[in-house]
Write a structure and sequence with these properties.
The chain is an all-alpha fold and about 50 residues long. The protein is built from two helices and no strands. The longest helix is centred in the first third of the chain and has 25 residues. The protein is elongated and about 65 Å long. The mean pLDDT is about 90. It comes from Maritalea mobilis.
């Protein structure tokens, strides 16, 4: 009985992970992969030190 519950829970969590991944691809979360790496190189002139 415990094995059936564990298998059901693991399949459910796998489906949740797959659905989350497909949602992120559909909503263009992976469009700008170079933006974060380039943003760190830009000098922020608004910062007063």
């Amino acid at each position: 009985m415990n094995l059936v519950v564990l298998i059901a829970v693991s399949i459910g969590l796998g489906l949740v992970g797959l659905a989350t991944f497909l949602w992120s691809v559909k909503n263009d979360q992976y469009e700008d992969l170079d933006g974060a790496s380039m943003r760190i190189l830009v000098v922020d002139t608004d910062c007063e030190e």
